[in-house]
Amino acid sequence: MNTMQTITATAIGIALATSAMAVDFTDTAPVVAATPNYRQVSVPRQECWTEDVSVQVQPQARSYTGPIIGGLAGGLLGHEIGKGQGNVLATAAGAVAGAVVGDRLGNPQQPPQNATQQVQRCRMVNDVKQELSGYNVTYRYGGRDVTVRLPYNPGATVRVSVGVM
């Protein structure tokens, strides 16, 4: 074979090989229907409210100022009243009585009282919402209806990929 025949045979071989391969192109097809698809999504949120709660209030802490001052005053008064050997006894009795009176005046007896206090309570709740997840699209091409799922609404027409063998 000469050079010209070799080139011609090669060109014919390439042409035949190319014609046997698949050819791809894009075309448009009319959309027959596009139906949206939704999925349910759980959305957690915190729900809070305020409620009144009954609590017991304890009386104030005891004060020692009243018994000390009462004891001193009672001791001085007992010392003034007492005579001779009874002076020590009168001073001691006056101090004890003064301390008791001072304690009663400085720390009046108060029973525990009920009071209302506002308390904030919270809990987690799940709301369910509908979220668009895509479209079922039916288009007509070559006399046949084809349904595909797309993430968007294509409108009146859709681009289709066509392969020819």
Summarize this structure as a short list of keywords or feature phrases:
165 residues, alpha+beta, 3 helices, 34% helix, rod-shaped
Number of helices: 3
Protein structure class: alpha+beta
Give the total of beta strands: 4
Largest beta sheet, briefly?
4 strands, antiparallel
Radius of gyration: 51 Å
Judging from the principal axes of the Cα atoms, what is the shape?
Answer: rod-shaped
Strand order of the largest sheet: 3-2-1-4
Mean pLDDT: 81
Percentage of β-strand residues: over 45%
Element string (H = helix, E = strand): HEHHEEE
Termini separation: 33 Å
Given as residue ranges, the uncertain stretches (5+ residues, pLDDT < 50) are none
Can you give the helix content as a percent range?
Answer: 25-40%
